[in-house]
Amino acid sequence: MARAALGLSIFAFIPPLGIAAIVLGHMAEARMASTAGDIDGKTINGTTTARAALWIAYLQLALLVVTAGFILGLFHETAQGFRQDALVQRVFRASDQMKPLDPESAREAEGSAQTLIYQFVAIEDEIRRHRENGSYACQINELTDTGVEGATDAEKRAFAVRVLQSPYLFQLSDCNPNTNGSESAAYVLTAVPRPPRMPDDSAVFCTDQTGVVRTVRGGISLDCLKNGQPAR
């Protein structure tokens, strides 16, 4: 039994074999101890072999634990660095933007989209006041670059991020900037929920140059423009 334990202890870095070597080593020691009254060369050799097996097994298992701990720590640090990489962060954000929102988060997103619509209306009015020809902006990025009146550069960037990361798609259409003065300046602004992030019955928002924000639930932008009710 002591020899078997010694043989297995050589492969103690394999946990099942290491455990078996330890069990056999202790069993061999116990058997040798029970024959202590009849000590001979065979008993002494058996005890020595069993203890050697135990030492080898315990040392290899301890080394295995230390090595595993070191590797896990190194892996954790590598994973943390990997997650902090800018490209990886963008991938994670893109993945998050495809996950459906829970009902409470969806309601918050609706309120945020409605607030953004009102801010866009204010920005359009500001742009028209400051332009000599009284025209509107016809691109969403023009609105985010302009920002609300008095906004700092940091606030403008934060506003643009809110629009970009919103589960709503904001779009300007039917825009007539009135650059030649032949027609009245006009625009149509819509905010449509992005599937699959938003539920099917989410609110759709729309407005135009009048500044009246309307909404319809569970439809499309055309439904909002035709049958939408004033938002509250």
Strand order of the largest sheet: 1-2-3-4-5
The backbone outline, from C-alpha atoms, is rod-shaped
Ends apart, CA distance between termini: 85 Å
- Rg is 37 Å
Q: Your description of this structure?
A:
With 232 residues, the protein is an alpha+beta fold. It folds into 2 domains: 2-84; 100-230, no CATH class. Helices cover 59% and strands 12% of the residues. It contains 8 helices and 5 strands, in the order αααααααββββαβ. It has helices at 2-9, 15-34, 41-84, 86-96, 103-130, 140-146, 153-165, 221-227, and strands at residues 168-176, 186-193, 203-208, 214-217, 229-230. It has a 5-stranded antiparallel beta sheet with strand order 1-2-3-4-5, sandwiched between helices. A hairpin with a 5-residue loop joins strand 3 (203-208) and strand 4. Helix 2 runs antiparallel to helix 3. The longest helix has 44 residues, at 41-84. The radius of gyration is 37 Å and the shape is rod-shaped. The mean pLDDT is 83.
